[in-house]
Amino acid sequence: MKFDPSIVQTTFQSPLGKMIIAATHKGLAGLWFDGQKHLPAELTGPVVWPTVPGHPVLQKVIVQLTEYFSGQRSGFDVPLDLAYGTAFQQSVWQALLKIPQGGTASYGEVSQRIGKPAAVRAVGAAVGRNPVSIIVPCHRVMGASGALTGYAGGLERKSALLRLEGALPGGAA
Q1: Average pLDDT, the chain
Q2: In this structure, are strands 17-23 and 8-14 parallel, antiparallel, or unpaired?
Q3: Which residues pair with 106 in a beta bridge?
Q4: What is the largest CA-CA distance in the chain?
Q5: Residue 136 pLDDT > 50
Q6: How many whole angstroms separate alpha carbon 136 and alpha carbon 5?
Q7: pTM above the 0.85 mark?
Q8: Is 37 part of the annotated catalytic residue set?
Q9: Can you give the pLDDT at residue 170?
């Protein structure tokens, strides 16, 4: 993915570890756990996005994530800038936004929802490349048998997020 050169970032210490939040003038463009798979090169290489904690989108995301992790928020209302994926990836990410908190969907169900029933593997790849973890809820996608499968931030975090949302036993209802 090639991101807008004007992107800015900040960090957020979540109960599941440090997170990196990135935004453009259009909206939230990235939300990753520190060290997760598929981090943008701009976060791991010599070119690093400037840190601007006062950016209004970044501040709004921090407030909403704090509410989410404390069980006071079930949805997010921040503007998103998902323009950095392919058209196919963007269609998958839009489908993820329709999976309600407390619910899950299989990769096959997501592929059906976007009108590409044979594209289950491609859907899996697009889910794994989701640049806006939690808010675009890729953690709600499960294997066909309902098993916890793949999560760029780690299966422990996926499990914790699903418990927090009440989709797995042992979490908030």
Answers
A1: 92
A2: antiparallel
A3: 142
A4: 44
A5: yes
A6: 22
A7: yes
A8: no
A9: 64
Q: Which residues of 71-100 are buried (b: 16+ CB within 10 A; e: fewer)?
A: eeeeebebebbbebbeeebebbbebbeebe
In DSSP notation, 21-40 reads: EEE-SSSEEEEEETT-TT--
Q: How far is CA 105 from the centre of its chain?
A: 15
Tokens of 124: 């899996």
- C-alpha to C-alpha distance for 127 and 10, rounded to whole angstroms: 23
Query: Which of the residues 22, 28, 135, 138 is marked catalytic?
Result: 138
User: Which amino acid does the sequence have at 44?
Assistant: T
**The pair of three-digit structure tokens given for residue 119, joined into one six-digit string:** 């594209």
**Residues above pLDDT 70, as percent of the chain:** 97
Residues 78-101: tens digit of each pLDDT: 999 999 999 999 999 999 999 999
* Residues 18, 147, 65: CA angle, nearest 5 degrees: 25
CB atoms within 10 A of CB 143: 13
